[in-house]
Specification:
506 residues; alpha/beta; 7-stranded mixed beta sheet; 6-stranded mixed beta sheet; 15 helices; globular; disordered N terminus; disordered C terminus
Length: 506
């Protein structure tokens, strides 16, 4: 009898153990999805990093990249030294980029140290001085109190409110649309997207001269666009030429490179994603087949539970095909603004800018005239921050490297207008940012069930920090959807709003 009793409970224990093992296996399968990310820029790298933090070591994370890690963070080599050929500056209060840099053991360097001039159809109308007191006096003479007002307005009405997103993301809260993420920073930010920055600043009491010169120069330099852009991206652009800007020593692309390594994601490169095919099992559970080709045009495919697109996907400008969806995937209605970067190692044609001596030329000239064929003209600094070898041209002039931003590839006569002589010349031409306009669509981050789009955030503004915030939001959104944490999606609780109010008071 004792033997039968023992055998009965032994069998029961085996059954319970087996059942528990099945539950653990199912739970592990449920908790550790297969994630495919298309694009290895700052948005894709940030998504991969936070997805690993959230989903754990057992999650499969693959990143598909067609060309290079970093995306629009890129370098160009001239005479043995690397220069930024993509996004260049980071704001002093961009917390994600600051935290990444510290965590990854990277070094920061100030971006600009030199004289700056504003250039229009009548030549240079304003120059800074090596003496800060003189610069302040000149600013006051030309723009009155607007220069002091703009700093307070940017801090109080933009940056302080913008920073709320960091605390909210720390709480694990995610948002489905760009409009929702702007609203949680401040509802006024959505209103900022519905009017031009010129209209917004005039309503705030700023003068025409300040808007038409200083703000126009900021937008021409940052985005190659004018004060007709939406107010929110205009405010981001103004913040982008304030003191305290920095970049990463060795190149900003080191951030996504090291984030991807930190995420332990599997980088599949070069790989061009061609098709994303929706699949459903008998229970209606969604998965995706991602088809891609290698440089030899050999097709391959992998299957994922979650797919995240982290590369620009404007309507009609992508070769990715979405197949077997019940209705067409709605791609955002935006076009990319083409920019050209001209890198020249040589001697400036100073007479074009109204100078007699090369030493009088500012280190950076910003165009405030949208009819000029160039947007900015500046000495370029190598990403290792070592001074360029002071090589001389045949006429004894230093052959420094200059970076000129334009809206289109320059002609040979235009290049000769800008440079007296040159030893080397390179041109980078790409779709850098959206064409920003008031009342532009603020799209959803969610294209379909478990199919996400990081770069939707660029409809509000395009910057390294914006794409990093978008990437973190997508990782949180995917995690909350996967586990059914619906109270962490598009929801703010009383303690969240109270905390934000307290922070604002402090």
């Amino acid at each position: 009898m004792a033997v039968l009793y023992f055998s009965f409970w032994s069998a029961a224990a085996v059954i319970l153990l087996y059942t528990f093992s099945l539950e653990v296996v199912c739970l592990e399968e449920e908790e550790h999805p297969r994630i495919g990310i298309v694009g290895a820029g700052i948005g894709g790298a940030t998504t991969a990093y936070y997805a690993r933090q959230l989903f754990g070591e057992s999650a499969v994370i693959d990143i598909f990249e067609e060309t290079r890690v970093g995306g629009r963070l890129a370098l160009i080599n001239i005479d043995g030294q690397d220069y930024e050929a993509g996004a260049t500056v980071i704001h002093a209060r961009n917390m994600l980029m600051l935290n990444f840099t510290k965590m990854l053991g990277l070094e920061r360097r100030d971006c600009f140290d030199g004289k700056l001039g504003l250039y229009g159809s009548d030549g240079v109308v304003f120059e800074t001085s090596s003496w800060s007191a003189v610069t302040l006096a000149k600013l006051a003479w030309r723009y009155g109190w607007d220069m002091w007002k703009i700093r307070g307005w940017i801090n109080d009405q933009v940056i302080n409110k913008f920073e709320r997103i960091y605390e909210i993301q720390d709480k694990g809260i995610a948002f489905t649309t760009v409009e929702d993420i702007l609203k949680v920073m401040d509802p006024m930010f959505v209103d900022f997207t519905k009017k031009s920055v010129k209209t917004l600043l005039k309503e705030e009491g700023f003068g025409d001269k300040f808007i038409d010169e200083f703000v126009m120069a900021a937008l021409q330099t940052s985005y190659g666009q004018t004060t007709d852009v939406a107010g929110f991206v205009g405010a981001v652009s103004i913040a982008g030429i304030t003191p305290g800007l920095w970049s990463v020593k060795g190149g900003n692309k080191r951030v996504p490179e090291k984030l991807i390594k930190k995420s332990k994601a599997n980088l599949i490169m070069p790989a061009k994603v061609t098709n994303i095919i929706l699949q459903k099992d008998t229970d209606g559970i969604v998965s995706y087949e991602v088809q891609y080709t290698n440089p030899d045009k050999q097709p391959s495919a992998r299957e994922y539970d979650i797919v995240i697109i982290a590369t620009p996907l404007p309507q009609g400008q992508t070769n990715i095909k979405f197949e077997d969806f019940p209705q067409p995937v709605r791609e955002p209605k935006m076009s990319l603004h083409k920019l050209a970067l001209l890198f020249v190692q040589g001697t400036p044609n100073i007479t074009t800018f109204g100078y007699e001596h090369i030493g009088d030329l500012p280190q950076a000239l910003l165009s405030m005239d949208p009819n000029l064929f160039w947007n900015s003209y500046a000495q370029a600094t190598p990403v290792d921050y070592k001074k360029h070898l002071n090589k001389k041209s045949p006429d004894g002039m230093e052959e420094l490297v200059y970076k000129v931003a334009l809206n289109q590839v320059p002609t040979e006569p235009q290049i000769r207008l800008l440079f007296k002589s040159r030893k080397d010349l390179r041109v980078v031409h790409w779709g850098a940012y959206p064409d920003f306009s008031p009342d532009m669509e603020l799209p959803s981050f969610l294209l379909y069930d478990r199919l996400y789009y990081v770069n939707a955030i660029e409809s509000a503004a395009s910057a390294m920090e914006m794409n990093a915030i978008g990437g973190r939001n997508i990782a949180l959104l995917a995690y909350n959807h996967w586990h059914g944490y619906l109270d962490k999606i598009d929801e703010l609780h009383d303690e969240d709003t109270t905390s934000s109010s307290k922070n604002e008071e402090l």
